[in-house]
Design goal:
446 residues, TATA-Binding Protein, 15 helices, 3 domains
Length: 446
């Protein structure tokens, strides 16, 4: 995958202009990284825009979500975006929008996703309520996807018709995992504490700010969605937000006259204000109203995936692979976990790709340093080496991280004195054979 490495490392002027052209209007097609033609704008959010795209090689239609790195960093959403990447790339379910790949440049992250031709479920129900049988069919697909997520420690936390898409066969696809929580966000009390979601769909315990169970919150939102599909309007709604919150707290809603007794009873269990007695996903699956015509989806055998480790993958050698956000973070320098302490001196950096194994690269750094007078090298962690002077002062720090299965990204940081002379003149020339080409190393004097 040499071309992908070059694309991630080079300036993304072409990619930025592509997004700008699509933003301005429209339908003029431009190409992203030579892989996808970008077309019309499909929608926008707080720090992302979604475009229609087409795979140049296969002709497959895709949705491309463009996220601004600057907005993400300034808004404090780095963990938010990394979590969304980690979640979406591992979820494999016929009722969940699939993430095909993530492309990263210096200024943007591009999520290339399955394109749902049918659009938002919200647009369909806005034209009129569904029949009870159709409500049941979509609710069954929704619960299948939600149950799958919960079994893997993922809680969506922003389920609503706008985040439910339809494919070309009018099948349901759950999308937008930007607010998803995973198991490692649960505090010692066993609950989540982040206030998030869309007000009309938020469970009362979230508004209470006392902590909540992510699975129970998702069930509540599913109940609101089912009500909307059946009624054509929200169960809890008011122009005054505080009045609406009071209705949610008290569970005050009224089913329309056409609602069957079985569905009324089922909705009352979904929209139970007490999370302890609210129906669970397992209980939903055995409910008589839900089970009518239900066909359980046969998924591949257990994939071993659970949300307990969402930050990074590991290759067979135990070396952690960087995700796309890690890659683009290198464009503005990389903090080597405190190896370079703050002393007021400017910190310089250089990065290059290598096709050698991580151990080989770090071992070579140690060997070269050992052969130079006045310096020595010491392994700090499995993927980091310190190069020190005679008095033990830190001259340079080197870290090698797995970029892909074939390539590493090597990051070096040093201080102006004496690091520049030692690294540039003595160590760097002897590592030249480890550098992956065709491109020159990408350097940054930050």
């Amino acid at each position: 995958m040499p071309s992908e490495i070059e694309e991630c490392a080079r300036d993304d002027a072409a990619s930025s202009s592509a997004a700008a052209a699509a933003e301005e209007g429209g339908l003029q097609e431009v190409t992203l990284m030579g892989k996808y033609e970008i077309g019309r704008l499909l929608g926008r959010g707080a720090f992302a825009k979604v475009y229609y795209g087409r795979n140049v090689r296969t002709g497959l239609g895709v949705a491309i979500k463009a996220v601004s790195k600057q907005k993400v960093v300034k808004g404090g959403f780095v963990a938010h975006v990394k979590r969304e990447i980690a979640i979406m790339r591992r979820l494999r379910h016929p009722n969940i929008v699939r993430l095909f790949e993530v492309l990263a440049t210096r200024t943007k992250i591009y999520f290339v996703m399955e394109f749902a031709k049918g659009g938002e479920l919200f647009a369909k129900v806005a034209k009129g309520r569904f029949s009870e049988d159709l409500c049941r069919r979509y609710f069954q697909q929704l619960i299948s996807a939600v149950g799958y997520c919960h079994s893997r420690g993922v809680f969506h936390r922003d389920l609503k018709p706008e985040n439910l898409l339809l494919d070309e066969n009018w099948g349901l696809r759950v999308s937008d995992f930007g607010l998803s929580a995973v198991g490692d966000q649960v505090r010692a009390d066993g609950l989540l504490h982040t206030l998030c979601g869309t007000p009309a769909y938020v469970a009362p315990e979230v508004l209470a700010k006392r902590g909540y169970d992510g699975a129970k919150v998702d069930v509540w939102s599913c109940g609101v969605i089912l009500f909307v599909l059946n009624a054509g309007y929200l169960p809890f709604n008011d122009s005054n937000l505080m009045v609406m919150y009071r209705k949610i707290y008290k569970g005050e809603f009224r089913c329309p006259k056409w609602t069957s007794p079985e569905l009324r009873r089922f909705l009352s269990r979904l929209l139970e204000t007490n999370p302890e007695t609210r129906i669970t996903v397992d209980e939903i699956l055995s409910d008589p109203w839900f089970r009518k015509g239900y066909k359980e989806i046969k998924l591949p055998e257990e994939d071993g995936f659970h949300a307990k480790d969402f930050s990074e993958d590991e290759d067979s050698g135990g070396n952690k692979c960087m995700n796309a956000f890690d890659i683009i973070s290198f464009s503005s320098g990389f903090d080597l976990s405190g190896l370079i302490r703050d002393s007021g001196e400017p910190v310089r950096s250089e990065r290059f790709a290598s096709a050698e194994p991580p151990e080989r690269v770090l071992q070579r750094v140690e060997e070269v340093a050992a052969g130079e007078e006045g310096v020595s090298a010491a392994r700090r962690k499995g993927d980091e080496v310190r190069v020190e002077g005679q008095s033990g002062e830190l001259v340079a720090a080197v870290r090698a991280r797995r970029l892909t299965a074939e390539l590493l990204l090597v990051e070096v940081q040093w201080r102006d004195e004496p690091g520049r002379g030692i690294w540039k003149d003595k160590l760097r020339p002897q590592l030249d054979g480890l550098i992956f080409r065709p491109g020159e190393p990408v350097s940054s004097d930050s």
